[in-house]
Specification:
This protein has about 180 residues and is mainly α. It has ten helices and no strands. Helix 2 (about 15-35) runs parallel beside helix 7 and helix 8 (about 130-140) crosses helix 10. The chain is elongated. One of its GO terms (biological process) is DNA-templated transcription initiation.
Length: about 180
């Protein structure tokens, strides 16, 4: 079914047309949302919201415009809203921590994972040398805070503080990068 026929069927409330639309675009939409949000739950929510909006606003669809343009414009705007929302500031790195563990393990298969890793690497590179060292030792999983403190001749509180600041800085840099890529 082409976009024009699909749009006409959607406007008439045809659930089969909606299912076809969902099956055609949901995977693509999820991959795009996950690429920028780095969080499975937020990406799933963004896709669910996208298709809910399509269904509730189906009367406003214009059969002269390609459906995928409309879909991805709505999705892009939702992703930008999520990224700009300060309540979601904690999400950016949470699902990426497992990617961070593979940062030196060039066995990343998925292009989206590679793009996320590149974004994270760029953010880590912007940390001060001391903060970068603490962060790298901490995410390696090989050292406790006390061992890092001993190794770097710092107090344990300094290690904890610098690590938490590194996480905040990386999260913010990734969020800003994702927003700028979407705009």
């Amino acid at each position: 079914m082409d976009d024009v026929a699909l749009t006409i069927q959607l406007k008439q409330g045809n659930q089969l047309a909606f299912t076809i639309l969902y099956n055609t675009y949901s995977d693509q939409a999820y991959r795009l949302a996950f690429k920028y949000l780095c969080n499975k739950e937020l990406a799933e929510d963004a896709v669910q919201n996208l298709f809910m909006k399509i269904w509730t606003k189906r009367d406003c669809l214009d059969e002269r415009r390609p459906l995928n343009h409309f879909l991805f414009t709505v999705l892009k705007n939702d992703i930008l809203n999520i990224l700009r929302d300060s309540k979601n500031n904690i999400f950016v790195l949470d699902d990426c921590l497992e990617l961070l563990e593979r940062i030196d393990d060039d066995q990343v298969d998925d292009e989206i994972d590679r793009e996320q890793l590149d974004m994270i690497r760029r953010a880590i590179d912007q940390l001060s040398p001391q903060r970068r060292k603490i962060f790298s030792l901490k995410i390696s999983g090989q050292y406790s805070n006390q061992e890092i403190a001993d190794k770097l001749h710092l107090s344990i509180n300094t290690v904890k503080f610098q690590y938490s600041q590194a996480l905040k800085q990386i999260k913010e840099l990734i969020r800003q990068c994702a927003i700028s890529l979407l705009l």
